[in-house]
Design goal:
alpha/beta, six-stranded parallel β-sheet, 8 helices, 33% helix, globular, binds zinc ion
């Protein structure tokens, strides 16, 4: 199972768009935060979002965030929450830095028709999508924190009808604008380059659950480069994020 989950994570942000011929095209929504602009007087504003799909915790990233006081929005699954109590405790101890949001109960793509995405079966029905969303929220509530307001599904792809349903359940859907680590499969150098190149208003996505991957080192380097440039980091609940495909309006 662990291998399967890791594969899901790894494939989640591949550059390839899943498409199954005659089936409804899936959506991979974008998200931006309000740019700081010139009048903001700083080096720009970005939101860092990190997925914790399953597996373990990349303490290189977690420590760097704490040590450098970089706020982040962490998308956690029920699976990850169960196995990473120590990391959750660290995040909860720094409520000024970490916002925990909903990445689903079991890391199953929020697509309500049966199909394969990167070779992995989708939730496959409206009920199964709802169960994935609600079980993720319940896991977070069970871990004792504020109720999540944002959802990001496994693979970050959705059917349009699933998007509408998730919005009805009360969640905004977190797309992104910078794919920082390519599903945690990129090398350190390319990951650092991508993250370090983020612009005012960007929402970065990367992973915090792959401690053995080189990408994690690049995440830290890229973030420190942004900080050095004077970039301000915001969390999704502190920024009026605007997504396309009906994900936030
Ligand atoms: Zn994931």
């Amino acid at each position: 199972m662990r291998v399967l989950r890791n594969t899901l994570c790894a494939m989640a942000l591949s550059l390839f768009t899943a498409s199954a011929g005659n089936a409804t095209a899936l959506l991979e929504p974008t998200l931006h935060v309000k740019p700081q602009g010139v009048e903001g007087g700083g080096g720009g504003r970005v939101a860092l979002t990190l997925d914790a799909c399953g597996g373990k915790t990349d303490t290189r990233i977690l420590s760097a965030l704490v040590d450098n006081r970089i706020p982040a929005t962490i998308f956690v699954t029920g699976i990850w929450l169960k196995r990473n109590a120590e990391a959750v405790e660290i995040m909860r101890a720094h409520p000024d830095l970490f916002e925990l949001e909903n990445h689903g109960g079991r890391h199953i793509p929020a697509v309500d028709t049966p199909r394969k995405i990167y070779g992995i079966l989708s939730a496959g029905s409206p009920d199964a999508v709802q169960a994935e969303v609600e079980s993720g929220a319940a896991a977070l509530a069970g871990a004792g924190g504020p109720a999540p307001k944002w959802f990001r599904g496994a693979t970050a792809e959705y059917s349009p009808s699933a998007i509408a349903m998730i919005r009805k359940l009360g969640f905004k859907i977190a797309g992104f604008s910078v794919n920082g680590d390519g599903g945690s499969l990129l090398g350190a150098r390319e990951t650092a380059r991508r993250i370090g190149a983020a612009k005012d208003g960007d929402v970065i996505i990367a992973h915090i659950n792959q401690p053995t991957h080189a990408a994690g080192e690049g995440v830290v380097q890229g973030l420190l480069a942004l900080k050095q440039k004077g970039m301000t980091f915001v969390r999704l609940d502190d920024a009026d994020g605007v997504g396309n495909d009906g994900t936030t309006d």
